[in-house]
Design goal:
Length: 440
């Protein structure tokens, strides 16, 4: 009988350390403390704090007491801050949050690729509160207590924190939380609620994600939701799995989201930027860096519903816009045709080699990337083999994968010319940024 070696799990002895300074923040916004040559990461503290902490794991620690507060520390205004896992930087002043995000981008570029941008531009920022126009809420039904909990996940936990107001949601969405929780608790299908999405569009949208074999709403549930819709002046949609959302009322039109090229038609559940005001500046800036014109053949990767596509194509450039979600490809193509824009919308998996695909045959001279947090390594590797591409604009929501991909582009002969951070997510450690690359 074969015997396999199993290494013993490393256990870290819990140890209390007192009166130590926080010397910095990591890219996730956690404080950095040092003990016996090791760095440990502590949530909820800021540089300049003097704290007592307990070592809980490899490079992990928890704050037990703040002995002396830093000048950078502020009192979090949200009453749910200590429990809710949503806004993890409320204890840091907005000015210092923005300086930290600028610093993180520079540090990660150095770490992953020894890259220095030719130009690090000032951060683009706006309001620090009530900016979110989209949110995903967790739902839990307790059959014993006959109670519905609607809110956000707790810090490092699956527990749901019931929230009746949110300081980062738009006023319209924040005011909806209490009546929405009451209405959902009355539904016959309450046990089949998975989660709920809220979107502050031309009319507030509520999307109910259901699980199980739901093919239609009961007459009673339709009546209850119709009453909610009328009282709160909103539209309700529901979906099961990955199917297209179904409207509560067949007369409902698709909502529209403000964009730099007018407004974009979307289905609730489509990806949309949460910060609509800064999204307008993001699109204007990124497309200006791309500098599209009528002689350009442009490849756009991860096009979504057309947030950037419609603005790029308005220049008269020929645009091939590639997206992995078929329904979004169809809507992008339809909106391009409505506006008379030269966009070829393509459904493809960009995590696979694609340069020999039929849709990739034009000699693209520019590329535009807006990937999810996983980044665009495969796309970047392909672009370094595309001889005609000399300009790349990369919009990222994850500076670590952006830095990794920037290293790939650098090895392929591109230079990072400039970077600009966009503070799309104040009160959180999340960072949005734009990078411009061109051939050496």
């Amino acid at each position: 009988m074969a015997q396999f070696y199993r290494p013993k799990k490393t256990t870290v002895k819990r140890q209390r350390i007192n009166a130590q300074p926080v010397v910095g923040l990591d890219h996730q916004g956690r404080g950095i403390v040092r003990h016996q040559g090791q760095s440990y990461f502590v949530a909820g503290v800021v540089p300049g704090d003097e704290i007592d902490y307990t070592i809980t794991g490899k490079h992990q620690a928890t704050c037990e007491r703040i002995r002396q507060s830093s000048e950078q520390r502020v009192a979090p205004p949200c009453k749910y801050y200590q429990q809710c896992g949503g806004c993890d930087l409320q204890h840091l002043s907005v000015t210092d949050q923005r300086a930290h995000k600028q610093r993180v981008v520079g540090e990660l570029l150095q770490k992953y690729g020894a890259i220095s941008a030719t130009e690090m531009l000032p951060i683009i920022a706006a309001e620090g509160w009530h900016y979110r126009q989209r949110a995903r809420l967790a739902v839990h039904w307790n059959p014993r207590q006959q109670k519905l909990t609607l809110g956000f996940r707790a810090k490092q936990s699956k527990t749901i924190i019931a929230v009746e107001q949110c300081l980062t949601l738009s006023a319209a969405l924040s005011e909806l939380l209490r009546p929405l929780q009451h209405a959902l608790a009355q539904l016959d299908l309450v046990k089949q609620l998975g989660h709920v999405e809220l979107i502050d569009a031309t009319v507030p949208q509520v999307l109910l994600h259901l699980h199980g074999a739901v093919t239609e709403l009961s007459a009673a549930d339709q009546q209850r939701l119709m009453q909610l819709s009328e009282q709160q002046q909103l539209q309700v949609w529901w979906r099961v799995g990955e199917a297209l959302p179904s409207p509560l009322s067949p007369e409902q039109e698709l909502p529209r989201y403000p964009s730099a090229s007018g407004s974009i038609e979307f289905y609730p559940g489509d990806f949309l930027q949460a910060n609509a005001a800064l999204n307008l500046q993001l699109v204007e800036t990124a497309v200006a860096w791309l500098d599209p014109n009528t002689s350009d053949q442009i490849l756009e990767c991860f096009a979504g519903a057309g947030n950037f596509s419609l603005k790029i194509a308005a220049s008269g450039a020929q645009l091939t816009a590639v997206e992995g979600v078929p329904s979004m490809v169809e809507r992008l193509q339809a909106q391009a045709q409505q506006r008379g824009l030269n966009i070829k919308a393509v459904h493809a998996d960009l995590d696979q080699p694609w340069r020999r695909q039929k849709w990739a045959q034009p000699a693209f001279n520019k590329a535009f990337l807006d990937p999810a947090r996983a980044g665009a390594r495969q796309v970047c590797e392909e672009l370094t083999k595309a001889p005609a591409v000399d300009t790349i604009v990369y919009v990222s929501c994850a500076p670590d994968t952006f830095a990794r991909d920037a290293g790939v582009l650098q090895q392929g002969g591109f230079k990072l010319r400039k970077v600009q951070v966009v503070d799309m997510f104040p009160q959180t450690h999340h960072i949005e940024l734009i990078g411009l690359f061109s051939k050496e």
